[in-house]
Amino acid sequence: MTEVFWFSEQPYGHVTEDDIEGYESGRMHFPNTMFDPIKAHELYSNYHDQYALADQVGFDGIMSNEHHSSYWCMKPSVNIDAACIAKVTKNVKIAMLGNVIAVQDPVKMAEEIAMLDCISGGRIISGFVRGTAVETLHAGISPTENRARFEEAHDLIVKCWTTPGPFRWEGRYWPHRMVNPWVVPIQRDPHPQVWFPGTGSPESVIWAAERQYPYMNLGSLLDLTKQLKDIYFETANKVGYTPGPEHFGYLMKVFVADTEEKAQEVGRKYLWTEAHRNRGPAEFNDPPGYQSREALKIKMSRPVIGTGTMGKRMSYEELQDAYNIVVGTPETVIEKLRHIKKELDPGYILIYGNEGDMAHNDVMRSIELIGEKVIPAVKNF
Amino acid sequence: MVSSTASRKEITVLGTTVEYFVGGTGDTSLLFLHGAGGNSGWQKYHEELSKRYTVYVPSQAGFNGTERPDWVYTITDMAHFNLQLVNALGLSNYILMGSSMGGWISSEMASMDDSNIQSLILIDAAGIKPEKGEIAEIFMCSAQTRLKQRFYDPSQVENYEAYTRELTPDEVFTEHSNREMASRLCWRPYLHNWSLPFYLKKITTPTLIVWGENDAIIPVECGSLFQANITNSTLKVIANCGHSPAIEKPNEFMETVNKFLSN
After folding, report:
1. Looking at this predicted complex, what is its ipTM?
2. Would an 8 Å CB–CB cutoff place A180 in contact with chain B?
3. Contact check, Cβ <8 Å, A296/B183
């Protein structure tokens, strides 16, 4: 049965197009003097109220994430956000998608995630991400090390959860002669589920499929997502297992209101500063070495997946046609989700439920309507 | 670019195939080490030098046509690799010249063992953290910014258009790979080695340090720091010149080098 998750980037919605316009990039160059901590305090409170309501109205889970140097995501630590979710909710799964383990201390990550699993009573899904390149640059780490660090960190975290301590770990990046984390996860079969996200890179899909980790596609267009899902399934078959909906999730922007007119009006805020958020020199988003030379060769030799849609600015209407943005009354949204279920058959529908300066009350109403009407319908698809 | 007087060759070092250009027939060998941008091939100043020396211009490990050995992660690794390259090429009592990152590598090689090095020439070398200024950002910025930083006055650069033309797909791949290798070697600490000033104390080889006065990438104060730490060294600062004196002020550069080597 399809599970429905709530997700918010927790944007600092006070930023306007005019604020960003003059800077070379929307991330590394956009100065934090534009950030007002008092306003952020109010926003965090709203976002936590939204979490609590999502739990009450029947969402299966809440997903969270982490970004750095980003006005559109005020979460530099997914673990801190997961701790908040654990305390303001009672039932939802908490999917962290995820920790940027290439730039963190993996032993501390293993401890913190285990602690969260204990605090939440075993509700943690532990996603691991390479992060956008900016996460690595912001951490002062060479992009050439990201993948190797990611893989070593992943292996060390899993070992912390599955091997009794103390043990020795003589890795290249995190050599430890004594590892013995006191706190271990509640979920021990064999450890909290690991999810892996992606937006368009086939290499990421293959990495997840090889390990039977559910792959969460973060907001790609429907056609591209179908191609990536096929790659997952092909890899799974090579590895020797039959994947199902439980291996695949799809994130989309969903806003529901009592009237179509209201939904269309508020939903337009999904385009908030869209052109600026990842703007900047290619050296920020895809610096040399962030991809392997092999991956670069493949990328240069084949047509880009989803040619014709990627990299092109799309209108609000086009994004709705592509099922990237789904807005409407409960009835119209249910029909659109039914189409996505039929086309993609995701085991997890991840609802990116607010953006920019959407009014808190509008978002709360959207959560209520999704919980009362949309989720029960999705369960019967 | 390879002129009729130079040829491209290959040699195996520690299992890695190294490409290099060689030209000239002088009794004394000169080994030139390129900077973080990679090997631009046989340049005019190589041609000039090859009138007196046998000049070797290798693509260093991981750059251009030379494979990337798995174990080379630091400039110190690179220096060890290059000392083995020197042995493989059979260079004896040779002149070692390096530009920018290549200057850093050269200085680490000489610190390890300068008994076989007749003269050392460092050109706007990376490797020492400036005390007053900063080394400019060369990775997290666009190609246009990097080009702007490199030259003080583009009108002094012969065939400047070559630096701004659109690259072929093969050239894009090579440039990307070169920048990837430079990132691997130089990211952190950024374009310097905290210990280098102490390593340098061991060098006794006569050393020439050449610097563009207006170097916008590695400030000229780094030239003074190299000079202060290498016993037998001279600093020559070239006025109205950026990070690449051999290209931006070729005549003054060659005069400086020839004068030093004649002594």
Report:
1. 0.91
2. no
3. no
Strand partners, B31: B56, B96
Q: Give per-residue pLDDT as tens, B38-52.
A: 999 999 999 999 999
For tokens 């994130």, the residue is A251
The two tokens of residue A300 are 């240069």
At A121-164, the pLDDT tens digits run 999 999 999 998 999 999 999 999 999 999 999 999 999 999 99
Please report, for chain A, the start and end positions of each structural domain, with discontinuous segments joined by +: 3-379
Strand segments, DSSP code E, in A101-218 are 124-129, 167-170, 175-179, 194-198, 215-218
CATH number of A3-379: 3.20.20.30
Q: What are the sequence ranges of the domains in chain B? A: 6-262
Task: Kindly report whether the peptide bond that precedes residue A190 is cis, defined as omega within 30 degrees of 0.
Answer: yes
Residue B58 preceded by cis peptide, ω within 30: no
Q: State whether A141 and B172 contact (CB < 8 Å).
A: no
Q: Which residue of A has its CA nearest to B140?
A: A283
Q: Which residues of A touch B173 (CB under 8 A)?
A: 296-297, 300
Cβ under 8 Å to A: B residues 87-146 = 139-142, 145
Taking the C-alpha atoms of A360, A363, A368 and A373 in order, what is their torsion angle to the nearest 10 degrees? 170
Fold of B6-262: Rossmann fold (3.40.50)
pTM: 0.93
Among A137, A142, A293, the residue with its CB nearest the CB of B177 is A293
H/E element, A254: strand A248-256
